[in-house]
Amino acid sequence: MKFHIKYLFLLAIALNICINAQEKLIVHPIKFSSSSSYKEMKKQYIIEQTIENIAENNEDDNIDYTTLFDQLNYYYEHPINLNSREIKFDLEQLMLLNQFQINLLIEHKKKYGKFLNIYELQSLNSFSSNVIRKILPFVTVNENFDATHLSFKEMLQKGKNDLFIRYSRVLNNTSGQINLDDSSWLDSPNSKTLGSPDNLYMRYRFKYQRHLSFGVTTEKDAGEAFLGNPKADELFEITTPRGFDFYSAHLFLKEVGKIDMLAFGDYHIQLGQGLTFWSGLAMGKSSNIMSLKRSPVGIKPYASIDENSFLRGGAFSIKMKQFKLLAFGSKKMLDANIVDDTASQDGSLIVSSFQASGIHSTIGELKDKDAIEENILGAELSYENDFLKVGAIGAYTNYNGSLKRQLSIYNQYEFNQSQNLVNGLHYSLVKRNINLYGETSRSINGGIANLHGLMASLHPKLGVSLLYRNYGRNYQSQFANAISEGSRPVNEKGLFAGIDFKINNFWEISAYLDQFQFPWMRYQVTQPNSIGADGFFQIFYHPSKKLNIYARIRHRDKPYNNAKIARDITTLSNINQWNLRFNVNALITESIRIRNRVEYCSYSRSGNANENGILIIQDLTYKPKEGKLSFTARFALFDSDSYNSRIYSYENDVLYYFRIPAYYYQGARTYITTRYQFKKGIDLWLRWGNWMYTNRKSIGSGLNEINGPSKTDLRAQIRFQF
């Protein structure tokens, strides 16, 4: 990898800005009032940081964070009243406080009565000025409690409507858009997309606080047909779709009359610690050490565009004093590859694989669409008091076909039948400054998985987190989403140990070490009992609300097949990957925020040369105090030897569109996202982005390949609120 002088020049500019910004910033006592522009920027910053924390270990630029954004945005627009009777659930869902801080706040209110004002938070031991600043946009103190006895008609009158319409496309021509003659297309049906490169999205949602929500979400991906494709209909004797490719709708009620939660249409179910059943996103390993424990929401309305990881049907929960019963049912079609001209003895379809992309832009993808039916029935019975929560979960899944996937030796224990039953028990015990929690699950084939953790606040400034996990090689649950090194909680043993140390009001340290073992083989690991480790250290400095700086180091050591030394015999070596990051966020004025980041990646595999990567980012956010126009812009330079030394970074985009792309090879990344508010209730976003590579003659692969070193995309979105 070559380090160019322009990198050093940009780095010098970034550090100079940081130093000057720090010199100008004076440490003041915490203040609880600020202009509307600062609060808006603070909200955006906190939400983005929370999402980036979740995304930093996912390393997938196609994950949808809409549900999480909805949740955080709701608490910003409807701050949690700390004097309300029930605040524990809301504070847990906010994900900015750990279990001990929440309990301390509740105990303080029990002992001293209701909060008189927000300044009282400063008297709590675990609430540093930085913690208070983080939660300020999302909490309030007053005597006005939200009414929960409104009729359905009154909620309809007092609620808020949101309508989003979005258009996106890559401006460059791709290989999937080439013109083919009929015979060439017939010879290679999947060599051409059926529709235009336009991406279309529309979302309508009505919401009254947290009590009522209903809405519709639709989307057409790039390459999918919107007005049909008569030529494809004629050549392949199919009917190409008209309209949007994906439709989603939901109706959700919460705490209305005797109803605790009620959902119809599309929804998420999140229970226990995610080992038995958890659909949608969940926190994993991150710099927030004390957030490792899950805070299940139970039932959550779904309004995203991921076409797989949700349930479709109905769900409800009712409370009976300290007991709670939750039940759910789902019936939806899944994309799958059906074995041609074959059927099992009972006449059901034979499925060779599931398809999870959600894209139906070619003949083959269209044939796989909605190929198999998935049916789910499940329930949870739980008990909760002031210090203990226990629950039992059961979930039955059935497919109207026979799974006959061609499994290899390494994945021979994976789910490969038409039905599954998973049962689990979960618990959480909080006593003073110690929290014990965990979950045990068993699948119908006898596979067992265990997860047990401990969090302890040893001192107001020191917290520790321990987590032991043992997931059997034959444990099977299609909706499990627990803490793991792999993508699923299976075939893994591990011990996680982390600390969170607040040195003083300005300095914080967080670190963890996660050691793991894979009892059976894995993909590209053809020996059992392989081991690895994941280490992390971060120091965080925040002298004022206008400046924060952090530096982090992460080292991952994972097993991988080495070169073959004999036929069918392989030896293992470990991949060593180091990531070093230095990040500065500074509020220059109440309208301007900058972020500077430098990140370095080193990747080495036994027998091969080291591969290195570097990423330098300059972000600028501008929102004038009373202006209608605001924007966020980025200029980044990156240089990596290969895809192995790639570096991920969250990108700001239009509202409800999220990307955490990988930066690799050599080039520059530029984008600008603008927002213009015509008047209250009407907002327009425009985004232009460009990748420019200096060592590539083409970008992408397959039908998305672009012949040339540059890729430009455009996105426009309008929102109506009424």
Task: Report on the architecture of this protein.
By secondary structure, the protein is mostly beta strands. It folds into two domains: 627 residues, Maltoporin, Chain A (Beta Barrel); 61 residues. Helices cover 15% and strands 45% of the residues. The chain contains ten helices and 34 strands. The protein has a 24-stranded antiparallel beta barrel. Strands 11-12-15 form a three-stranded mixed β-sheet, with no helix packed on it. The N terminus is likely disordered.
List keywords for this structure.
722 residues; mainly beta; 24-stranded antiparallel beta barrel
Number of helices: 10
Oligomer: single chain
Radius of gyration, taken over Cα atoms and rounded to an integer in Å: 26 Å
Q: What average pLDDT do the residues reach?
A: 86
Number of strands: 34
Strand content: over 45%
Global morphology = globular
Summary, kept brief:
By secondary structure, this protein is mainly beta.
Draw up the topology in text.
Blueprint: H1 5-24, H2 36-55, H3 66-77, E1 80-81, H4 88-94, H5 99-112, H6 129-135, E2 139-140, H7 152-158, E3 160-170, H8 182-187, E4 199-208, E5 212-220, H9 230-236, E6 246-256, E7 259-270, E8 298-301, E9 311-320, E10 323-334, E11 336-338, E12 349-354, H10 363-368, E13 372-384, E14 388-399, E15 401-403, E16 419-431, E17 434-443, E18 448-459, E19 462-471, E20 492-502, E21 507-518, E22 530-544, E23 547-566, E24 569-587, E25 592-605, E26 611-622, E27 629-640, E28 647-648, E29 662-663, E30 666-679, E31 682-693, E32 698-699, E33 706-707, E34 710-721
